């Protein structure tokens, strides 16, 4: 279970560039829930994800995961319980290493690394089995460097890697945004399957409102560093993209009037 | 070149193979351009010589101690970078210049002769084979053992983590790797190898000298560049072998250039020759047909 309590994040504090990225976020994601996050540019959705991953400096407030206070944990320590898929397919994998070596790295995420060989005997067959599910023929290319794969293939591999080992939380940062529509659909479908099968608590940031509503079971919208909308269950089931769009436009309009107030 | 010269060049080639392995680890694996080696090479020599001469240590132990001192130096550089965010190149320069003073302290002077004392090469004196033949064989064996250890290490869980930390730090962190710690150990390890090379070099040369570190960084880097541009470096084994071959070839290239009378070069021109060789290797690496394109472009003009 993720509990974010009254988290504030300010970038470049005390300088003319000061930006309040998050202004008091409260969010609780129960175990096993698949949450989607939307919002315009600069709304704070990516910052919120970075707060969970440990990349954004929390000014005040707390982040708890399964009852543990992880607010001050460094990224690599959180990685034992939180896995992550990046927006850029190049970020999630190591292109100089082979597919097999990348999976060996992912195995090391949840269990201590040692001076034994990283690629253990049975790891090869298990990995081959896992990548076979993707239907991309990668099971025959385990010793190819990841740099040889296409963006979609790399993203699919990142996703499988993120689902390696007993982690409890999966963070997805617009992980289909850099892919062509067909590959994006494929990666999204794979995401749904994996989250479902492993019963992960997942948080997905997305730009696509259709994607936000059709994936997972709860949607929140960020606006100017705050959560302005939180829908789940029947309320969400009855929503169409138009409703969200309407809401979106309304908040954008407010922003405009706010600005005109400031300027005028 | 006489046989004596060839064996001597081979000898230094193998010693600098260790420096090249260190440079490979920092520049290629960790993506950490490390200039500490300018100081850690003479540090290894100074520690080893001082321990043998002043404290009467066993030469093997003294050589190992030189390596440990190198590890500490590399660790300190990485610490300045990781903990205090000092630019890696600057951190290396800071360590290198401070080591210059430290080395003078350790040797209580600008050099420490190793004449008339027992060195690791004396262990092979009893077989009736002259030292100038045994020592290149011994140094080749040492270099190959280090190469094998580096190879094994880079395939362990830790080694794989180190490779990821250098190649893609964000991904490494997201996979639970403490990137800062990997830099500390990796740069330490690279400097341990460099200092080991320094300790061995001092024992061949017959003295440790405060100035012997000048140009070591470029020699190490040159070996990596020459080796990996001539040979395939697809796997770790190929790349590390290429580094050692590069170090030996590089030494021969320098020796030949200095020996060629028609060029009129003197021993003091060694740094210039180094710079020219590295520049040529880089031009060749710039693209497979770097040279060809260069000359073609000249024709067109």
From TrEMBL, chain A:
GO molecular function: ATP binding; ATP hydrolysis activity; transmembrane transporter activity
Pfam families: ABC_tran
SUPFAM superfamilies: P-loop containing nucleoside triphosphate hydrolases (SSF52540)
Keyword annotations: ATP-binding, Nucleotide-binding
One Gene Ontology cellular component annotation held by this UniProt entry: plasma membrane
Record flagged with keyword Nucleotide-binding: yes
Segments forming domain ABC transporter: 2-249
Gene3D superfamilies referenced in this protein's UniProt entry, alphabetically: P-loop containing nucleotide triphosphate hydrolases (3.40.50.300)
Highest rank taxon of the organism: Bacteria
Similarity remark: Belongs to the ABC transporter superfamily.
Cross-referenced PANTHER family: ABC TRANSPORTER DOMAIN-CONTAINING PROTEIN, IMPORT ATP-BINDING PROTEIN
Protein name as it appears in the record: ABC transporter ATP-binding protein
Species of origin: Nitratireductor pacificus pht-3B
UniProtKB/TrEMBL annotation, chain B:
Sequence intervals crossing the membrane: 6-27, 89-107, 127-154, 184-205, 211-232, 239-258, 270-291
One MF annotation (Gene Ontology) recorded for this entry: transmembrane transporter activity
Keywords from the named record: Cell membrane, Membrane, Transmembrane, Transmembrane helix
Record keyword 4Fe-4S present: no
Record flagged with keyword Transmembrane: yes
InterPro entries membership: ABC_transp_permease (IPR001851)
Cell location: Cell membrane
Main localization (coarse): membrane
Domain of life per record: Bacteria
Lipid bilayer topology: Multi-pass membrane protein
GO CC entries: plasma membrane
PANTHER family listed in its UniProt record: ABC TRANSPORTER PERMEASE PROTEIN YPHD-RELATED-RELATED, BRANCHED-CHAIN AMINO ACID TRANSPORT SYSTEM, PERMEASE PROTEIN
Protein known as: ABC transporter permease
Organism of derivation: Nitratireductor pacificus pht-3B
């Amino acid at each position: 279970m993720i509990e974010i309590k009254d988290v504030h994040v300010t970038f470049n504090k005390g300088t003319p560039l000061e930006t309040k990225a998050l202004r008091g976020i409260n969010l609780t994601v129960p175990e096993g829930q698949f949450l989607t996050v939307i919002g315009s540019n600069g709304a704070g959705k990516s910052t919120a994800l970075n707060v969970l991953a440990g990349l954004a400096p929390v000014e005040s407030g707390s982040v708890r995961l399964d009852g543990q206070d992880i607010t001050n944990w460094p990224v690599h320590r959180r990685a034992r319980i939180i896995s992550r898929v990046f927006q850029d397919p190049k970020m999630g994998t190591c292109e100089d290493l082979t597919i097999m070596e990348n999976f060996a790295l992912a195995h090391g995420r949840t269990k201590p690394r040692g001076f034994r060989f990283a690629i253990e005997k049975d790891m090869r067959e298990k990995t081959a089995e896992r990548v076979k599910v993707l239907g991309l023929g990668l099971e025959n290319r385990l010793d190819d460097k990841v740099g040889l794969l296409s963006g979609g293939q790399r993203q699919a591999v990142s996703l499988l890697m993120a689902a390696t080992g007993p982690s409890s939380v999966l963070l997805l940062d617009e992980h289909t945004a850099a892919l062509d529509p067909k590959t994006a659909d494929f990666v999204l479908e794979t995401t749904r399957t994996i989250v479902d099968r492993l019963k992960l608590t997942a948080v997905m940031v997305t730009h696509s409102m259709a994607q936000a509503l059709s994936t997972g079971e709860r949607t929140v919208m960020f606006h100017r560093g705050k959560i302005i909308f939180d829908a789940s269950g029947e309320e969400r089931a009855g929503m169409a993209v138009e409703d969200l769009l309407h809401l979106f436009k309304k908040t954008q309009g407010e922003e405009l009037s706010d600005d005109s107030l400031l300027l005028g | 070149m006489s046989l004596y010269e060839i064996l001597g060049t081979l000898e230094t080639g193998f010693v600098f193979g260790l420096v090249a392995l260190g440079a490979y680890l920092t520049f290629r694996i960790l993506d950490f351009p490390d200039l500490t080696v300018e100081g850690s090479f003479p540090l290894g020599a100074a520690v080893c010589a001082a321990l043998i001469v002043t404290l009467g240590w066993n030469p093997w132990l003294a050589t190992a101690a030189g390596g440990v001192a190198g590890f500490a130096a590399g660790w300190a550089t990485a610490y300045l970078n990781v903990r205090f965010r000092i630019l890696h190149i600057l951190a290396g320069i800071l360590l290198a210049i401070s080591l210059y003073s430290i080395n003078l302290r350790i040797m209580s002077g600008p050099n420490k002769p190793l004449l008339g004392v027992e060195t690791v090469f004396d262990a092979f004196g009893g077989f009736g084979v002259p030292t100038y033949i045994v020592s290149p064989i011994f140094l080749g064996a040492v270099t190959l053992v280090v190469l094998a250890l580096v190879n094994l290490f880079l395939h362990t869980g830790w080694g794989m983590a180190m490779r990821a930390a250098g190649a893609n730090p964000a991904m490494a962190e997201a996979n639970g790797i403490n990137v800062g710690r990997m830099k500390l150990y990796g740069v330490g390890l690279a400097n341990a190898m460099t200092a080991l090379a320094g300790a061995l070099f001092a024992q061949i040369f017959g003295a440790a000298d405060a100035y012997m570190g000048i140009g070591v960084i470029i020699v190490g880097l040159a070996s990596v560049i020459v080796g990996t541009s001539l040979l395939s470096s697809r796997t770790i084994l190929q790349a590390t072998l290429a580094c050692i071959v590069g170090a030996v070839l590089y030494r021969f290239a320098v020796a030949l250039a200095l020996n060629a009378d028609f060029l009129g070069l003197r021993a003091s021109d060694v740094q210039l020759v180094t710079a020219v060789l590295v520049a040529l290797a880089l031009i060749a690496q710039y693209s497979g047909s770097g040279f060809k394109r260069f000359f073609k472009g000249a024709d067109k003009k």
